[in-house]
Amino acid sequence: MDASLDPSSLASPAASSYISRLTSLSLQELEAEPTELSSSSAQLTNALTTLCYTSYPTFLSLHTTTSTLSSSLDALSSSLSSLLSALPNLESSARTFAQDSRSLLASRRKAALMLEHHDKLHDVLSLPLLLETSVRNHNYSDALLLAQHASTLASRFPSNPLVQSVKADCDARVHSMLAQLLRVLHEQAKLPALFRAVGFLRKMNVLSEQELALAFLSGRSAYLDGTLRAVEVEKKGIDSEGSVEREREIYARYLKRYIDAWREGVHDVVTQYTTIFLDRPHNAEPAPSELHVLLTTFTTLRIQQLLDLLRETLPLVADPSLLSSLLTQLTYCATSFARVGLDFRAALGPLFIAAVRKGMTREFEDATDTWTRTFESEEASRTRTRSGPSARKKPSQLFLPATTASAHALPTPAQLELIASSPPNVPPPILASYPLLAVYTNALLSTLNGLRLLAPASLLHDLLSALDTTLTRATATLLAYVRSSADDRNNSTAALKAEEMKREEDIVRAVGSVYVKVFVPFVRRALVEGVYGVKMDDIKTRPEMGADLKRALEELQGRLEDGVDT
């Protein structure tokens, strides 16, 4: 054993393995072992020498590389030490940067998210503008879809302020659409437009069916009131000075226009309301009773409005010819409304009866006023100048035509009998002999001729009573003239010629006689028989008729029989 061998090398695994192998060899193998070892050593030395000779560049390169690697590792170790010493500062700077850039990163993330959902956000933000455009263009279907979409988004994102803001803007536009649809009910519109507006109001679900029906009637009533107010222009010129006939024609024209506008407007509302709210499909439930009540209330109020206007205005028309035309128009109107269950013909009779009564009474009064004014002017002349009979016109000048001032006619019994049997609408010729009586007769006959066009049967006794009242006043006026005429002659100091005085007395007696025996019976008969076709004998069943007139005529007749000079 070589003394230079390190004992510790025998403890290596290779040595341990080799020693274990030696113990397993036989003696011959052990003896041959040194020789094999020497041979193997020589071979290895030879192979190593050959390797060094052939691969020396590799060994040189390996040496250089090993040296470089050693220095690089030293430099790397130094750099790593510097890096480790700089890492705390880098970590601190990184934390500071991350903290400073956190808000910026959040903004960038929001911007990136917004950019990613740009189309969706644009659609949401455009909802109010699109809805407003749809409402402005009356495209209510799209407007309702957009509003529904906004409501859906608001329910899905209740805490999102942007979505809630869009929802609030859309609600404002929807409110504008509601006002626009309700405004359609106040404007001139036909059934299709109204039906469409009510349909969209139903889809909006902001009003119940009863509230919607009430809004419809209110809107159409407002439009109808505007139409009726426009007819007021027909009354232009009434306040200015004009004749009574002119005012009557203006009021009649106003009523005709008003009735036409009222009939068309109310009929349109009734048919439109019935179509929109009351007509239901056969398989649907019937309309609630409240809807029928609303229509009934509307029509009742409108009919009452018309009747109130007629009650106020018809007496201003008064002319039976104009009243007859208005009654025909109103009868046609009521008949057309009867098809929808609104026949108001029964309410027209009392209104026209009152108007005819008032108009005829006024006509009688006007005719009598003309008669009495003649005598009143004579009485005023007598009062102003007490100088004798010449202070006023003589009876011949007052009652007789200028061409026949000296002749006067008295009715004979035969003439009176003929007059009683003559047609009631033909004036007795004797009345033409006295122009003052003829004018009075013509005025009353013109009134009665107008009455023929519209003569309510129930007014016979009232009109006869009104005529008797005016005739009583006319009789009293004539009686007063007879008395004053006698007083003037009795107080006159200027001696009139006996023939002239007798002639004037005869004229007064003749006028009074014609008035009592011809004029009064004729005009009463013209009313009763000529207009109504009723015999005077039948009127006598009411003895209170004409009691005052009878007393006045008896007093006048007695005065004439006793003599106008007494």
TrEMBL record:
Pfam families: Dor1. SUPFAM superfamilies: Cullin repeat-like. Residues 375-395 are annotated as: Disordered. InterPro entries: COG8, Cullin_repeat-like_dom_sf. Coiled coil: none annotated. It is a peripheral membrane protein. It is found in: Golgi apparatus membrane. GO terms for biological process: intra-Golgi vesicle-mediated transport; protein transport. Transmembrane segments: none annotated. Its main location: Golgi. One of its GO terms (cellular component) is Golgi membrane. Keywords: Golgi apparatus, Membrane, Protein transport, Transport. Belongs to the COG8 family. This is Conserved oligomeric Golgi complex subunit 8. It comes from Trametes coccinea (strain BRFM310) (Pycnoporus coccineus). The lineage of its organism: Eukaryota, Fungi, Dikarya, Basidiomycota, Agaricomycotina.
